[in-house]
Write a structure and sequence with these properties.
Length: 271
């Protein structure tokens, strides 16, 4: 009985630590990127649409979905701690890079196929909440239904039983995914470059923004590989990125003058 109680306390301590850190990062990124967006209004991707009015709703939903994500991570780490999985590979700075990249590749495959599943007729009801953000914002990344979150983020609870990643790799990946997802939903483009379009496999914010705007393209998270191979990439994505490369003004750290109306002032809001 004591072992059970001790194990339960350990699990919830792991979960509480991960959840507290993730919520802190969620708000730090949200307000930090919003500060940057406010100073670069011309970098808004969907010029005629705004999603900021959904902020309060999205934050409330995010607090619940982040708990599901963190529970998945806690399950994986706790299982390793208890010795229920393969012994994790030893961590070293020589292997950290390749292992992190492997984790990214595996997560991207998991996310792509889970995301495709969530867009089927049977499962879309669980994913609908996330797509109410037609013009996503920094607060939209975790505004997801709980079943949806369990499917897309269940990777961490499963991968520990399949690939013996060191705990630090799983935690580093979770941090990276939070940062990547927040920028991916920011609604403003800062990463358009030749490496974000064919023949490179990397992505920029426009990739996922198009998914929210058009619904049936761009299901992947980090790389365009699966979408390109399976024909689900937006046919205008590469051309759009190339256009943004030439159009984007220099990044500014100063708030723009309010003396003249801008496209921001006339943009419509998501309903």
């Amino acid at each position: 009985m004591n072992a059970f109680v001790q194990g339960t306390l350990t699990f919830f301590a792991i979960l509480a630590g991960i959840y507290a850190a993730t919520v802190l990062i969620y708000f730090a990124l949200g307000y930090g990127i919003t500060w940057l967006n406010d100073r670069n209004p011309e970098r808004r991707i969907q010029k005629g649409r705004r999603g900021e009015k959904r902020k309060a709703v999205e934050i409330r939903q995010s607090m619940a979905s982040i708990l599901v994500t963190c529970t998945s991570v806690a399950i994986g780490l706790f299982a390793q701690y208890q010795g229920w999985t393969f012994t994790p590979w030893a961590f070293s700075w020589w292997t950290a890079g390749p292992l992190f990249l492997l984790c990214m590749v595996l997560f991207d495959a998991w996310f792509y196929f889970a995301h495709r599943l969530l867009h089927t007729k049977l499962f879309y009801k669980y994913h609908l909440l996330h797509h109410r953000s037609v013009a996503p914002t920094v607060w939209s990344n975790d505004s997801i239904g709980l079943v949806d979150t369990a499917l897309s983020q269940g990777f961490y609870a499963v991968i520990a039983f399949v690939v013996p990643f060191p705990p630090l790799i799983l935690l580093a990946h979770r941090l990276f995914d939070q940062i990547n997802g927040t920028f991916g939903h920011a609604g403003f483009e800062y990463f358009a470059s030749p490496t974000a379009r064919y023949p490179w496999p990397l992505l920029c914010t426009t990739y996922h923004d198009q998914h929210h705007a058009e619904f049936k393209y761009n299901y992947a998270n980090y790389f365009s590989f699966w979408d390109r191979v399976l024909g689900t990439i937006s046919p205008v994505y590469d051309r759009r990125v190339e256009t943004l490369e030439g159009e984007a003004p220099a990044i500014s750290l100063k708030r723009p003058s309010q003396s003249a109306p801008t496209q921001e002032a006339t943009a419509t809001s998501d309903r």
